Amino acid sequence: MTSRRDFSLTMVAGAATSLVSTRGMAVASPPVKARNVVLVHGLFADGSSWTEVIARVQRAGLTVTSVQNPLTTLPEAVAAAERVLSRQDGPTVLAGHSFSGMIVTQAGVHPNVSALVYVAARAPDADEDYSALAKKFPAPPASAGVVFDGDEGRLSEEAFLRDFAGDVPEAKARVLYAVQEPFQRALLTGNATHAAWRTKPSFYAISTEDRTINPDLQRFMAKRMGATTVEVKASHVSLISQPDVIAKLILEAAGQRP
Question: Does the residue 11 lie in any domain?
Answer without folding.
Answer: no
